[in-house]
Amino acid sequence: MRSIKTNQPLSLHPSTAENGLQRALMFLRTVGTDPAIRTELQTVGFGEDDLKQGWTLVLKACSAPQTAARFTPDAGPVADATQKLEAWQSTMYLRAHAALRRLHPEQDAFVFADAVGDASTAPLVSVSLFLSRLDALESSPERKSTRKSDHAALATLERRGVTKEERKQAKHLVHVIETTPAPELTTEPPSPDARMAALADVYAWVQDWTDSARAVITRRDHLIRLGIGKRRARAAAVPAPAPQPAPVPVVAPQLMSAAIAALPPKSNGMSNGAIAISANGGTHE
Q1: How many CA atoms within 13 Å lie on the side-chain side of 146?
Q2: Which residues of the chain fall short of a pLDDT of 50?
Q3: Which SS3 state, helix, strand or coil, does residue 39 take?
Q4: Maximum distance among all alpha carbons in the chain?
Q5: Which end of the chain has fewer CB atoms < 10 Å from its terminal CB, N or C?
Q6: pLDDT digits (tens, 9 = 90+) for 200-214
């Protein structure tokens, strides 16, 4: 397993560090579920220990407090409990909703109704309702008629990791948030962010292994799944030429002719235009 420690700490912009966490999650999920890609990475030394190290660094970054050792509105037990509650919600909700929706739809509709299923609801409110509804499945008198199916749903959740112990820990986090007094305000500059230090370790890890993966993986679909490849842009469709109007035939103008009326004869008996020649060569008209 490679060591990711360096003599000089990484100086990262917060957005770059947070993006590194997302990259690491995508990389780890893909390597952990695709044996073909994992086999390719083994040629550059990636092994089971490296996979475990990546997950350890990611979990550490996700749970690290935003600031160190200062009790401010953005730190302290409330901030720490809120962050852990959000992480708990993001994983346990997915497990519970996926299992109940398929296997116990009636219980799913009850547990995830209203605010629990609304993404805009604050985690404290949402998780509190979620936990109370799981308690109702367990022992609420109002649900006595569905007790057998409710307990079957809870048993399914136990197998999916939403255990009684997990629920107990979440209730403790809710209790901390609800009962901890408001902190004193401080104008002092915050101390170094422990989360940023943890994110820097994640960034160094994922940068190492993505660069290594590029050296041995050539399939574009594998690179895309690892988050280090880009899809080819589709060629723009060439519009079909617009139909040209048929040429208008050129018609030569027709000259209109009218019959010429004959002129009346002259008094000498000759028609107009006639030439009279005398026998002796005299004058003519």
Answers
A1: 15
A2: 3, 6-9, 68-71, 189-190, 284-285
A3: helix
A4: 153
A5: C
A6: 999 999 999 999 998
Report the C-alpha gap between 55 and 57 in whole angstroms: 5
Amino acid at 62: C
The count of residues in the chain is 285
* CA 229 to centroid of chain Cα atoms: 16
| Tally of CA atoms within 13 A in the half-sphere of 190 that contains its CB | 15
pLDDT, tens digit, 9 for 90 and up, residues 243-269: 666 666 665 555 555 555 555 555 555
Amino acid letter for position 151: H
Dihedral sign computed on CA atoms, order 12, 16, 21, 25:
negative
Contacts of range 147-151, beta carbons closer than 8 Å, 24 or more positions apart: 149/104, 149/106, 149/107, 150/107
The answer to whether the beta carbons of residues 46 and 26 sit under 8 Å apart is no
- Report d(CA 46, CA 49) in Å as an integer: 8
Backbone angles phi, psi at 65, to 5 degrees: -70, 155
